[in-house]
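Build the 3D complex.
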Amino acid sequence: MELLDPTAESAPLARAGAPRLAAIEGVTVGLLDISKPRGDAFPDRLAELLVARNVTVRRYRKPTHARPAAADLRSQIANDCDAVVEALAD
Amino acid sequence: MSKLADLDDGLLVVVKSDCETCRMVEPVLGVISTRTGIAIASQDDPSFPAGLTVMDDTDLELSWELQTETTPTLYRIEQGRVVESAAGWNREDWRRLTGIEGLGSGLPVSRPGCGSKIFEPGTFERLNHRPGSLRSRRVTVAPEVDPFEAMMSLGWSDGLPVVPPTEDRVQGMLGGTSRDAAETVCVMAPDLVECSVEKIAINAVMAGCKPEYLPVVLAGCEAVASDLFNIHGVAATTQFAAPVLIVNGPIRLELQMNSGINALGPGSRANATIGRAVNLVVRNLGGARPGGVDRSTLGSPAKWSLCFAEDEEGSPWEPLSVERGMPEGMSVVSAFAGHGPHEIVDQASREAESLASSFAAQLRSVGHPKLMGSLDALVVVVPEHARVFADSGWDKLRLRDELTDRLTFDADEVVRGAGGIAEGVPRVRLQPRMAKFRPDGLWFACAGGTAGMFSGIISGWTGGPRGSQMATVSIDNWK
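Done.
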């Protein structure tokens, strides 16, 4: 039997991640708070630990956790940072 | 490729052996063949009429090109075009077209023909969209594999069996709209995928829809994919929300949608499959799969399907679609991010004041009795409750105002910690008086059986521009 694919056909079975950083010293890491209550607790602690390891930290915040990050914010992070950590909450 | 263009100038007749009128004119066709020559095309059996040269049109390609409605139909063809035709048997018409005097003198003056095979159920839909015109990737299921199991393994299902989307079925589904299969209907989050009419039709087949439901499914997808509705948030939330569809206008009756007994439950094919199709599109095209982007803590049966029609005829109020700014008489679907229902049981109130207080008491519990101004709600008002409000002269506006009065609370009652409950309004958001619902966060639709004073609350999700807002679109636009 021949069936028509109901999916977007665009998603490969597995998506390759971005190349891993060889080391974190001297790189810039973005910390994205999704603006849920206490969503800053994890990035705050992470920032302390990263700065102690000579990492430049930049902080970002989505206006609302209920919507995806706007394209502007995504491209700003991509331009400014070598890596990003998105901190979920709850 | 045109078969008509290849024909020589002259006469053509389209017949089928399974037609009494065609069999009656069989001798006449012999006479014409001898005297002037005639091309004969058979829709079902090229050995009929016996003894004559007959073109095989069992694939109906020539009949489709001619849009032959009746067998027999006699045509005069010039330069690949029909210049004159006569449907059925009519002696005068046939004599004029053939120029043969005295033709069929032994036959009745006229006799109606039979229905052409191109209009048989299933055939019309297949011919209406040309094979090979569909662009979707073909997935071959080996003969020894059960297609139902294969589709489960491919991850195409919501957990219930889906109908195999074969080319014939999808072509048939596409017969439900005049729109081109390749046209883009919407861009569906979270994967931001352009959804074509064809892709949505495939999911509608799988959900079990009939072709005539397709315009509602297309409109439902348009509504759900709108920026207003914010399906990304609705699909991804850890809360319960799903797209709830409310249908208004004449199409409710045409599709025999249920707005009566068990309107929110099973039993109606249209209600069940339209809602399911939209959810399958969100899953299969949008990419929101439970455990993936769909992070709902408990989920809800509404994520399979929650779609119903408003009982406009039984309602004392204007339809939801009109309140939403659409013209009366237009078929319309509204998408609301919600789940449920949660019941309002009140069998004793005979006055609007009392019943409104019951509604308010139950509505306060949407989300949490101490959460204010965050979650929306849609109340499905049943006939026996609607009548109480109507008898007291209350319109929807009055009901909303009265509920707002009853659902506005002092800060110290709803603040976090009040009443020994940690949950509540955070101090930073606290106002002296707090309303339960945002100004456009409380909606009403009428539905349900005529017996039972049991209305239903469809609890919503985070409302307003920070969350999801009701989206209302025309269905007629997608016919």
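The mean pLDDT of chain B is 95.
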